[in-house]
Amino acid sequence: MGLLKTAVNPFATMGLEVSMKMKNQMKTMLKNEILTVEFYGELDNTSTFQYKERLADIIDRNAKLKLVILDFRYVSFIDSSGLGLIFGRYNQLASRQGQLVICSANNHILKLLKMSGMTKVIDIYDDATTAKGVLNR
Amino acid sequence: MNKMDLRFSARIENEPFARTAMAAFITPLNPTVEEIMEIKTLVAEAVSNAIIHGYNYDDTKYVYVKATLLSAHELEIVIQDYGVGIENIEKAREACFTTRPDQERSGMGFTIMQSLSDSLNINSILGLGTKLTIKKTLATVLEEVK
Lengths: 137, 146
Hints:
The structure holds 2 protein chains of 2 kinds. The relative contact order of chain A is 0.15. By secondary structure, chain A is α/β, with parallel strands linked by helices. Chain A has helices spanning 16-21, 48-61, 80-94, 107-116, 128-132, and strands at residues 25-31, 34-43, 67-78, 99-103, 123-125. Chain B has helices at residues 14-25, 33-54, 89-93, 109-116, and strands at 3-9, 62-69, 74-81, 119-125, 129-137. In chain B, helix 1 packs antiparallel against helix 2 (33-54) and helix 2 runs antiparallel to helix 4. By secondary structure, chain B is α+β, with helices and mostly antiparallel strands. Chain B is built from 4 helices and 5 strands; from the N terminus they run βααββααββ. Chain B is globular. Chain B starts with a strand and ends in a 9-residue tail after the last strand. Chains A and B meet through helix 3 and helix 4 of A and helix 1, helix 2 and helix 4 of B.
Protein backbone atom coordinates (compact mmCIF):
# COMPACT_ATOMS: atom_id res chain seq x y z
CA MET A 1 0.00 0.00 0.00
CA GLY A 2 2.85 2.35 0.80
CA LEU A 3 3.97 2.40 -2.81
CA LEU A 4 0.63 3.52 -4.17
CA LYS A 5 0.36 6.97 -5.60
CA THR A 6 -0.84 9.62 -3.21
CA ALA A 7 -4.60 9.42 -3.19
CA VAL A 8 -5.94 12.23 -5.31
CA ASN A 9 -9.60 12.95 -5.69
CA PRO A 10 -9.91 12.52 -9.46
CA PHE A 11 -12.81 14.94 -9.58
CA ALA A 12 -10.93 17.74 -7.88
CA THR A 13 -8.98 18.56 -11.03
CA MET A 14 -11.89 18.13 -13.37
CA GLY A 15 -13.97 21.13 -12.48
CA LEU A 16 -16.54 18.62 -11.30
CA GLU A 17 -16.25 19.52 -7.67
CA VAL A 18 -17.12 23.07 -8.58
CA SER A 19 -19.96 22.17 -10.89
CA MET A 20 -21.53 19.64 -8.55
CA LYS A 21 -21.78 22.04 -5.67
CA MET A 22 -22.46 25.11 -7.68
CA LYS A 23 -25.76 25.55 -9.38
CA ASN A 24 -25.51 27.16 -12.80
CA GLN A 25 -26.53 30.74 -12.40
CA MET A 26 -26.01 34.27 -13.58
CA LYS A 27 -25.77 37.43 -11.48
CA THR A 28 -26.14 40.85 -12.98
CA MET A 29 -25.16 44.15 -11.38
CA LEU A 30 -25.83 47.59 -12.82
CA LYS A 31 -23.92 50.64 -11.62
CA ASN A 32 -22.88 53.88 -13.33
CA GLU A 33 -23.95 52.65 -16.74
CA ILE A 34 -21.77 49.58 -16.36
CA LEU A 35 -23.41 46.16 -16.38
CA THR A 36 -21.35 43.42 -14.74
CA VAL A 37 -22.47 39.87 -15.46
CA GLU A 38 -21.08 37.02 -13.36
CA PHE A 39 -21.66 33.51 -14.59
CA TYR A 40 -21.44 30.57 -12.19
CA GLY A 41 -20.89 26.91 -13.07
CA GLU A 42 -21.24 25.70 -16.62
CA LEU A 43 -22.22 27.64 -19.72
CA ASP A 44 -23.80 25.00 -21.92
CA ASN A 45 -27.05 24.33 -23.77
CA THR A 46 -28.94 23.77 -20.53
CA SER A 47 -28.23 27.26 -19.25
CA THR A 48 -27.34 29.70 -22.03
CA PHE A 49 -30.84 30.14 -23.45
CA GLN A 50 -32.27 31.60 -20.23
CA TYR A 51 -29.20 33.80 -19.78
CA LYS A 52 -29.52 35.06 -23.32
CA GLU A 53 -33.16 36.08 -22.90
CA ARG A 54 -32.48 37.77 -19.58
CA LEU A 55 -29.38 39.65 -20.79
CA ALA A 56 -30.91 40.72 -24.11
CA ASP A 57 -33.81 42.17 -22.14
CA ILE A 58 -31.61 44.03 -19.63
CA ILE A 59 -29.47 45.50 -22.42
CA ASP A 60 -32.57 46.53 -24.37
CA ARG A 61 -34.11 48.30 -21.40
CA ASN A 62 -30.92 50.19 -20.48
CA ALA A 63 -30.26 52.29 -23.53
CA LYS A 64 -27.53 54.29 -21.77
CA LEU A 65 -25.31 51.31 -20.97
CA LYS A 66 -21.71 52.14 -21.81
CA LEU A 67 -20.05 48.91 -20.87
CA VAL A 68 -20.99 45.28 -20.36
CA ILE A 69 -18.45 43.12 -18.52
CA LEU A 70 -18.86 39.37 -18.81
CA ASP A 71 -17.03 37.86 -15.83
CA PHE A 72 -16.01 34.21 -16.22
CA ARG A 73 -14.23 33.86 -12.89
CA TYR A 74 -16.63 31.20 -11.62
CA VAL A 75 -17.15 29.35 -14.90
CA SER A 76 -15.85 25.78 -15.05
CA PHE A 77 -17.07 24.84 -18.53
CA ILE A 78 -18.11 26.51 -21.76
CA ASP A 79 -19.08 25.21 -25.20
CA SER A 80 -20.26 26.67 -28.51
CA SER A 81 -23.61 27.69 -27.02
CA GLY A 82 -21.70 29.90 -24.57
CA LEU A 83 -19.80 31.42 -27.47
CA GLY A 84 -23.15 32.11 -29.16
CA LEU A 85 -24.32 33.94 -26.06
CA ILE A 86 -21.21 36.15 -25.99
CA PHE A 87 -21.32 36.93 -29.68
CA GLY A 88 -25.05 37.65 -29.60
CA ARG A 89 -24.59 40.27 -26.86
CA TYR A 90 -21.56 41.71 -28.68
CA ASN A 91 -23.71 42.22 -31.79
CA GLN A 92 -26.57 43.63 -29.75
CA LEU A 93 -24.25 46.29 -28.28
CA ALA A 94 -22.31 46.92 -31.48
CA SER A 95 -25.41 48.40 -33.08
CA ARG A 96 -25.33 51.21 -30.50
CA GLN A 97 -22.76 53.00 -28.33
CA GLY A 98 -22.08 50.21 -25.83
CA GLN A 99 -18.97 48.10 -25.51
CA LEU A 100 -18.66 44.49 -24.42
CA VAL A 101 -15.58 43.07 -22.71
CA ILE A 102 -14.65 39.76 -21.09
CA CYS A 103 -12.71 39.17 -17.90
CA SER A 104 -11.26 36.34 -15.79
CA ALA A 105 -11.46 33.70 -18.51
CA ASN A 106 -9.50 30.52 -17.81
CA ASN A 107 -7.23 28.86 -20.37
CA HIS A 108 -9.95 26.63 -21.77
CA ILE A 109 -12.34 29.53 -22.30
CA LEU A 110 -9.55 31.59 -23.87
CA LYS A 111 -8.75 28.74 -26.24
CA LEU A 112 -12.36 28.57 -27.50
CA LEU A 113 -12.59 32.35 -27.77
CA LYS A 114 -9.42 32.42 -29.90
CA MET A 115 -10.71 29.56 -32.03
CA SER A 116 -13.88 31.50 -32.78
CA GLY A 117 -11.95 34.64 -33.72
CA MET A 118 -13.74 36.61 -31.01
CA THR A 119 -10.49 37.77 -29.44
CA LYS A 120 -9.94 39.94 -32.52
CA VAL A 121 -12.96 42.08 -31.73
CA ILE A 122 -13.60 41.62 -27.99
CA ASP A 123 -11.11 42.84 -25.39
CA ILE A 124 -10.16 40.45 -22.61
CA TYR A 125 -9.06 41.57 -19.14
CA ASP A 126 -7.59 39.80 -16.13
CA ASP A 127 -10.32 40.91 -13.76
CA ALA A 128 -13.45 43.05 -13.47
CA THR A 129 -11.63 46.04 -11.93
CA THR A 130 -9.20 46.29 -14.85
CA ALA A 131 -12.09 45.84 -17.25
CA LYS A 132 -13.93 48.83 -15.75
CA GLY A 133 -10.86 50.95 -16.44
CA VAL A 134 -11.53 50.65 -20.17
CA LEU A 135 -13.98 53.56 -19.91
CA ASN A 136 -11.26 55.92 -18.66
CA ARG A 137 -9.01 55.35 -21.60
CA MET B 1 -9.58 -3.19 -24.87
CA ASN B 2 -11.65 -1.06 -22.53
CA LYS B 3 -15.03 0.00 -23.89
CA MET B 4 -18.00 2.04 -22.77
CA ASP B 5 -21.49 2.38 -24.22
CA LEU B 6 -24.10 4.96 -23.31
CA ARG B 7 -27.64 5.37 -24.59
CA PHE B 8 -29.87 8.16 -23.39
CA SER B 9 -32.97 10.19 -24.34
CA ALA B 10 -32.40 13.14 -26.61
CA ARG B 11 -32.97 15.65 -23.85
CA ILE B 12 -30.58 18.55 -23.53
CA GLU B 13 -30.12 17.99 -19.78
CA ASN B 14 -28.46 14.68 -20.67
CA GLU B 15 -25.62 16.46 -22.46
CA PRO B 16 -23.80 17.41 -19.20
CA PHE B 17 -24.33 13.80 -18.08
CA ALA B 18 -22.66 12.46 -21.25
CA ARG B 19 -19.60 14.69 -21.04
CA THR B 20 -19.19 14.06 -17.31
CA ALA B 21 -19.48 10.29 -17.81
CA MET B 22 -16.79 10.49 -20.52
CA ALA B 23 -14.54 12.48 -18.19
CA ALA B 24 -14.96 9.80 -15.53
CA PHE B 25 -14.30 7.00 -18.04
CA ILE B 26 -10.91 8.44 -19.06
CA THR B 27 -9.75 9.14 -15.50
CA PRO B 28 -7.61 5.93 -15.38
CA LEU B 29 -5.59 7.31 -18.32
CA ASN B 30 -4.27 10.00 -16.01
CA PRO B 31 -5.27 12.86 -18.30
CA THR B 32 -4.23 16.47 -17.78
CA VAL B 33 -6.85 19.04 -16.81
CA GLU B 34 -6.55 20.47 -20.31
CA GLU B 35 -7.17 17.07 -21.90
CA ILE B 36 -10.24 16.52 -19.72
CA MET B 37 -11.66 19.90 -20.72
CA GLU B 38 -10.99 19.18 -24.39
CA ILE B 39 -12.68 15.77 -24.26
CA LYS B 40 -15.66 17.14 -22.35
CA THR B 41 -16.03 19.86 -24.96
CA LEU B 42 -15.79 17.36 -27.82
CA VAL B 43 -18.59 15.28 -26.28
CA ALA B 44 -20.67 18.38 -25.47
CA GLU B 45 -20.54 19.64 -29.06
CA ALA B 46 -21.29 16.27 -30.66
CA VAL B 47 -24.11 15.33 -28.27
CA SER B 48 -25.82 18.72 -28.43
CA ASN B 49 -25.64 18.55 -32.23
CA ALA B 50 -27.40 15.18 -32.13
CA ILE B 51 -30.12 16.43 -29.78
CA ILE B 52 -30.71 19.86 -31.31
CA HIS B 53 -30.08 19.30 -35.01
CA GLY B 54 -30.38 15.54 -35.42
CA TYR B 55 -33.54 15.05 -33.40
CA ASN B 56 -34.86 18.61 -33.02
CA TYR B 57 -35.29 17.96 -29.27
CA ASP B 58 -37.52 14.89 -29.81
CA ASP B 59 -36.95 13.08 -26.50
CA THR B 60 -38.61 9.86 -27.63
CA LYS B 61 -35.35 9.30 -29.56
CA TYR B 62 -31.99 8.14 -28.28
CA VAL B 63 -28.41 9.39 -28.58
CA TYR B 64 -25.62 6.80 -28.56
CA VAL B 65 -22.17 7.49 -27.18
CA LYS B 66 -19.42 4.90 -27.41
CA ALA B 67 -15.86 5.13 -26.18
CA THR B 68 -13.03 2.72 -26.91
CA LEU B 69 -9.51 2.85 -25.59
CA LEU B 70 -7.59 1.79 -28.70
CA SER B 71 -4.36 1.78 -26.71
CA ALA B 72 -3.12 3.15 -23.42
CA HIS B 73 -3.38 6.71 -24.71
CA GLU B 74 -5.63 6.52 -27.73
CA LEU B 75 -9.29 7.25 -27.27
CA GLU B 76 -11.99 6.78 -29.89
CA ILE B 77 -15.38 8.35 -29.30
CA VAL B 78 -18.40 7.59 -31.48
CA ILE B 79 -21.52 9.71 -31.18
CA GLN B 80 -24.49 8.58 -33.18
CA ASP B 81 -28.08 9.63 -33.78
CA TYR B 82 -30.83 8.31 -36.03
CA GLY B 83 -32.12 11.78 -36.81
CA VAL B 84 -32.47 13.95 -39.90
CA GLY B 85 -28.86 13.79 -41.06
CA ILE B 86 -26.68 16.63 -42.33
CA GLU B 87 -27.62 18.07 -45.70
CA ASN B 88 -24.24 19.57 -46.53
CA ILE B 89 -21.28 18.29 -44.51
CA GLU B 90 -18.84 20.75 -46.11
CA LYS B 91 -21.06 23.65 -45.05
CA ALA B 92 -21.52 22.20 -41.55
CA ARG B 93 -17.74 22.12 -41.11
CA GLU B 94 -17.44 25.81 -41.95
CA ALA B 95 -16.87 28.15 -39.02
CA CYS B 96 -19.87 30.28 -38.08
CA PHE B 97 -22.27 28.35 -40.31
CA THR B 98 -25.51 27.47 -38.58
CA THR B 99 -28.86 26.19 -39.81
CA ARG B 100 -30.45 27.86 -36.80
CA PRO B 101 -29.45 31.55 -36.87
CA ASP B 102 -32.72 32.37 -35.06
CA GLN B 103 -31.45 30.55 -31.96
CA GLU B 104 -28.29 32.64 -31.81
CA ARG B 105 -26.01 29.65 -32.18
CA SER B 106 -22.35 30.37 -32.76
CA GLY B 107 -21.96 27.85 -35.59
CA MET B 108 -18.68 26.82 -33.99
CA GLY B 109 -19.52 23.22 -33.08
CA PHE B 110 -17.66 21.45 -35.88
CA THR B 111 -14.78 23.93 -35.84
CA ILE B 112 -14.28 23.25 -32.15
CA MET B 113 -14.51 19.47 -32.65
CA GLN B 114 -12.04 19.62 -35.50
CA SER B 115 -9.45 21.63 -33.63
CA LEU B 116 -9.70 19.78 -30.32
CA SER B 117 -9.54 16.28 -31.82
CA ASP B 118 -6.82 14.44 -33.72
CA SER B 119 -9.33 13.36 -36.32
CA LEU B 120 -13.01 13.90 -36.89
CA ASN B 121 -14.95 11.67 -39.25
CA ILE B 122 -18.48 12.66 -40.21
CA ASN B 123 -20.81 10.04 -41.62
CA SER B 124 -24.27 11.29 -42.38
CA ILE B 125 -27.16 10.20 -44.55
CA LEU B 126 -30.18 12.45 -44.99
CA GLY B 127 -33.16 10.98 -43.18
CA LEU B 128 -31.11 8.21 -41.58
CA GLY B 129 -28.83 9.93 -39.13
CA THR B 130 -25.33 11.03 -38.29
CA LYS B 131 -22.32 9.24 -36.87
CA LEU B 132 -19.29 11.15 -35.68
CA THR B 133 -16.04 9.33 -34.99
CA ILE B 134 -13.55 11.32 -32.99
CA LYS B 135 -10.01 10.25 -32.19
CA LYS B 136 -7.98 11.82 -29.48
CA THR B 137 -4.53 10.82 -28.30
CA LEU B 138 -3.51 11.82 -24.81
CA ALA B 139 0.02 12.87 -23.95
CA THR B 140 2.22 10.27 -22.30
CA VAL B 141 3.76 11.31 -19.02
CA LEU B 142 7.39 10.24 -19.24
CA GLU B 143 8.61 11.36 -15.91
CA GLU B 144 7.19 13.00 -12.87
CA VAL B 145 9.63 14.89 -10.71
CA LYS B 146 8.42 15.38 -7.18
